[in-house]
Amino acid sequence: MPRTLKLAAAQMGPVHLTSTRTETMDRLLTLLRQASTLGAQLVLFPETALTTFFPRHLITSPDELSNYFDSASTLLTSPNTAPLFNLAKELNIDISIGFAEWDESAAAGSVAGANVKGYNTSVYYSARKGEIVAKYRKVHLPGTVEPFSNPDAVNQLEKRYFAPGNLGFQAFRAPDLVKSVLKKGGHGVEAKEDVKGKGDPILGMMICNDRRWVEGWRCYGLQGVELVLCGYNTAGFAPDLWGTRKPMTPEEAETDAVFHHKLCMQGNSYMNSCFSVSAAKAGMEDGKYDLIGGSCITSPEGHVLAEAKTKGDEIVFAEIDLEDCRQGMEKTFDFGRHRRIEQYGLITTQTGVVEPELLG
Amino acid sequence: MPRTLKLAAAQMGPVHLTSTRTETMDRLLTLLRQASTLGAQLVLFPETALTTFFPRHLITSPDELSNYFDSASTLLTSPNTAPLFNLAKELNIDISIGFAEWDESAAAGSVAGANVKGYNTSVYYSARKGEIVAKYRKVHLPGTVEPFSNPDAVNQLEKRYFAPGNLGFQAFRAPDLVKSVLKKGGHGVEAKEDVKGKGDPILGMMICNDRRWVEGWRCYGLQGVELVLCGYNTAGFAPDLWGTRKPMTPEEAETDAVFHHKLCMQGNSYMNSCFSVSAAKAGMEDGKYDLIGGSCITSPEGHVLAEAKTKGDEIVFAEIDLEDCRQGMEKTFDFGRHRRIEQYGLITTQTGVVEPELLG
């Protein structure tokens, strides 16, 4: 029995330091209405969808910084954010969206930077419940705490403003998003009786750089995830501060960044037998920072099913059947039969690289 | 300072049940000589390169089964295997080759099948040392212990004949394979003094199905691996015993299998900042089992640098610079700065899938 889902990524063009919250909200609402005309049941918006990607900037004023953050507890009531959730409810569309989560207690976490104000967060809103049913805080924060001294550098100060996510990779069920129930079976075993509730899809959220880290994908895979959602802001080109990169034109660098993005989404979807959807904030932000597009939907076989054609506001849409996850889950990637956890110890006991001893 | 390595995959066409060891050895020697004319310093041969891929067959006679196995301790002296290592020594080429390793004590391991005779193994032979300097035993054994009842099935009885590898993913140094030394540095830090011996490349071996499992790659990545070697025998098409696969022609299935192979090699190379080389046994074995080609060399940026054009005996060659690993290792994938092992617990504590609770 198919478990079809009409799925959309709402890619956004640039949002600038000078963009007002009202302007940006109007664009989000327009994208949601466009997705609705296609029949979308679930729409993913990008990382930090409400503002420019401010971690590029060294912002020292707490007041200024607070403009880029929102509190998770007031998302459904604040005039800055409520209109999007209200429209999602009205259109009966589940949404997931990324934002900078204000939580000063995060400063007490493992990062010492005095400007840590919270987390790089995404939430999942169930239109049927009228509630936020899941929250994810970005685990893999890229970049540095301190800005580069090189004036040509593109800063990435996520480690300065955010604490690493402390909620883990917690898969969750999207209530009544898909109505039909799942027939279990496989391995030639006769199909078991239908189980009420099995049809609620198992989802997982990640944010931007997380998609490059196999650990998050695998933690979700071990919870039977059927669809991974990932919003992002990814620079197409940055000066080579490490001096280790082959020379590239900005165009070549952008092509390579899109290739890497898709390689991660495709490869990890295949190796965890799940669909994925990714939504970019794209284009030239603040006249200087060129972000890649490439928002896409990938299948459990690792194929790209739909892909953005622009670097602006654009809906990427596909109708998927979550049952397509079963082929991988029950055969090649049947974790219970094939994984050998006694050999994986390094992954959870050692953070960085320890090279084999030098030879004499 | 570049650390260049002339690297080859020796793809093999089919080896049949009726092929003699002498015939197969002659082909291996020819491939090694061809690689030598290109200047190769390291040649990778496929999984079970010495025989047909016998785990497709239910073989009940211990005597018959023993024909497909070799003892690791006699590789350099047995007339069945010594000629290859002797020629490698003569040509000053390091080689890595897969074979079924006879070790009856493996039956005492965690697999109950009475026919377990050993391991699916590969070794690394250093021509400069004249010794086997590393051994790997395949961890992720695909397939089943018992054959399928369906006569159309393509059996994959690796779990019957082999115990899961018990040597872990142990990276190792290839003695004097690359002469120059590595200048450490990066992150804008001034380059440290050259360190004697740093230039010996860090390698890791995996076998066939292992390449689909991110855990092995990451264990190697955590040891600073610069090159992963992977021999394989991969069916292009098999009947859909699970009833979960979309209908495909054999041609479509083969295209998809090659796509998945390359996706794993490219994605995992990128996400671990290492090169990889893979060598297939390809073509129609025993008139019935059609194996994919697709032997390739991939870069730390996830690009395919060289790729087989045939499904027969063929050398795939590239000259690589191991210093190209540094870009990823020191920036995007600087594990020590970015990994968050406190969030990865499921990977080593839970083998199979545990789904989130059903919603009421």
UniProtKB/TrEMBL annotation, chains A, B:
It holds the Pfam family CN_hydrolase. Residues 5-322 form the CN hydrolase domain. The keyword Repeat does not apply. PROSITE patterns: CN_HYDROLASE. SUPFAM superfamilies: Carbon-nitrogen hydrolase. PANTHER family: NITRILASE C965.09-RELATED. This is CN hydrolase domain-containing protein. It comes from Cadophora malorum. The lineage of its organism: Eukaryota, Fungi, Dikarya, Ascomycota, Pezizomycotina.
